[in-house]
């Protein structure tokens, strides 16, 4: 297959994303999407969500967010969510009305990983077709190892959402569960402005980042995630 992409079954890959619930999928086909990520037209309410502009993130106890800013342009290019020692980076892009991007983007990710001497295995998981990438990296003790990242993607109406799981959620299905639920509840706000395909959708600082309740205190309604470092600069 092009770019050295390898499709593996779950046992061979060492990662088991989980069984699909075919009954729920069949029911969802008749009634619309059974689970997200969602377009804003399907979930217009902002209640219980943190508004980041193009993305709305469901409030979850213990969740922290970091906004990543491109140094040259000073624009927010991604949001990374941290929960229970794992991370999920999210980016939303404009997409053609009648085409999908995930197949092409997967091929490009494989090419990039392969050029670094790594591998990328294509899997069918709980979030659809995924890539499990292993990129050579140096450990803190100087020994050689691999950094593992799990790429997922969703083609929506005129938008594409990419997620990258890191930490235990990249390999362990049990550890991945909480962040997968966060991913499924993401709402994408595409907007009506004409944009070239693959242009990043605009992300903004949250309008409200109230702290989560202290341990032992009860909260009457979901609180927004705690804000991590205000800005993480990337080159």
Automatic annotation (TrEMBL):
Tree of life domain: Bacteria
Residues that span the membrane, as ranges: none
Pfam families according to UniProt: DUF3710
Chain intervals with Basic and acidic residues compositional bias: 214-229
Ranges where the record places region Disordered: 1-45, 198-235
Low complexity compositional bias, start-end: 18-37
The protein's name: DUF3710 domain-containing protein
Organism this protein belongs to: Arthrobacter koreensis
């Amino acid at each position: 297959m092009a770019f050295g992409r390898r499709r593996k079954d779950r046992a061979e890959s060492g990662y088991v994303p989980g069984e699909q619930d075919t009954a729920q999928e069949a029911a969802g086909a008749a009634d619309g999407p059974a689970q997200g990520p969602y377009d804003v037209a399907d979930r217009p309410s902002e209640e219980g969500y943190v508004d980041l502009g193009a993305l709305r993130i469901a409030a979850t106890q213990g969740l922290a967010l970091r906004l990543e800013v491109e140094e040259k342009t000073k624009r927010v290019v991604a949001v990374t969510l941290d929960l229970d020692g794992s991370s999920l980076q999210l980016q939303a892009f404009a997409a053609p009305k009648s085409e999908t991007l995930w197949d092409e983007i997967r091929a490009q990710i494989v090419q990039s990983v392969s050029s670094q001497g790594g591998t990328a295995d294509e899997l069918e998981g709980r979030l659809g077709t995924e890539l499990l990438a292993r990129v050579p990296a140096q450990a803190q003790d100087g020994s050689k190892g691999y950094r593992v990242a799990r790429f997922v993607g969703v083609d929506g109406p005129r938008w594409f959402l990419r997620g990258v799981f890191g930490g235990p959620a990249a390999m362990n299905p049990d550890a991945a569960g909480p962040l997968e639920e966060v991913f499924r509840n993401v709402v994408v706000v595409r907007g009506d402005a004409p944009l070239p395909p693959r242009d990043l959708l605009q992300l903004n600082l949250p309008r409200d980042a109230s702290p989560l309740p202290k341990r032992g205190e009860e909260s009457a309604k979901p609180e927004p995630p705690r804000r991590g470092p205000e800005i993480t600069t990337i080159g």
